[in-house]
Design brief:
The chain is α+β, with helices and mostly antiparallel strands and 143 residues long. It has a single domain, classed as Diaminopimelate Epimerase, Chain A, domain 1. The protein contains 5 helices and 6 strands. It has a 6-stranded mixed β-sheet with strand order 1-2-3-4-6-5. β2, α2 and β3 form a beta-alpha-beta unit. The longest helix is centred in the C-terminal third of the chain and has 17 residues.
Length: 143
Amino acid sequence: MERMQSVIKNCIATGQGMRIGENGQPWLVLTGWMSDVWNPPVFHRKLVDVVSGDIPVYISRYTHGSGCNTKALELAGITKDTPDPEGGHIKKDENGEVTGEFVERAPAELTRLIPPAVPYTPYGNARNFVEGQHLAISKGLTM
């Protein structure tokens, strides 16, 4: 988890992964959470809270889930009384409090708040694809 906390701090400091919502609220949106490399291998919003401050954080997992910090839960109005989303599960701790981890689908109350990475345009998507290919090649990744 220390590595993830370091990544979150660095992203907030550099602006990498930051998105601005319609109301001007900055969000940190990350992809690639792999819980099997964490120690302990458990997600809890409080572990993200200590490095994220007042910035909502949403992290999608490589497989079947996602997680967020307390600020994101507050903005979405997700509490221990929020029902599980269709096709998903809100994890709770031994006291029934929301941990910030979602199995399969996250609640729509949360996902509707997450700003898009880039407004969709055919040009924007093509540009991002080309830039991604150049980055991959520069790192020695080829197909």
